[in-house]
């Protein structure tokens, strides 16, 4: 089975999809991650991803591109999957993505959706209120038939050598930024976390 996982948002959102991607990868022959240009570097760090498909969708991001028939046709032609898991934040609708995936011939599609999906979704899941993004994605994967395969922690492929910056041994990276300033921790809070 060829599986597609979509998370069309930013770097951090794609990283949080990692545990769900691993659950899908445990049952699929291959996994393609469809993401936006800001999420692509993170997608390439996730275990279980065989291919990264990058597309700047007109319904996500802070400065989305104009709707283009050529771009829509291009992404529909590029998708090659039997099943798909559409990951979104709570306030996003998965239905525009689901429509494109149906046009691409994807036979099984699962997503969290508050809106009636018609024939666009095979699994319409309702995420738990206030669920962490990583946990919500794992719960959706389970509802779609992709059970957890590990502890659900965030993981990336082995990073490049950083000994000159970090010294020997293990290290932790703290990224104090956020794509929306209202969601960013203060410098003091980041220092406390470290």
Notes on the structure:
This protein has 194 residues and is α/β, with parallel strands linked by helices. The chain folds into two domains: 2-143, Rossmann fold; 163-193, no CATH class. It contains eight helices and six strands; from the N terminus they run E-H-H-E-H-E-H-E-H-E-E-H-H-H. It has helices at residues 11-16, 18-27, 40-43, 69-78, 95-103, 133-143, 163-166, 187-193; strands at residues 2-7, 30-35, 51-54, 83-86, 108-112, 123-125. A six-stranded parallel sheet has the order 3-2-1-4-5-6, with helices on both faces. Strand 4, helix 5 and strand 5 (108-112) form a beta-alpha-beta unit. Helix 2 packs parallel to helix 6 (133-143). The longest helix has 11 residues, at 133-143. The protein is globular, with a radius of gyration of 17 Å. The mean pLDDT is 92.
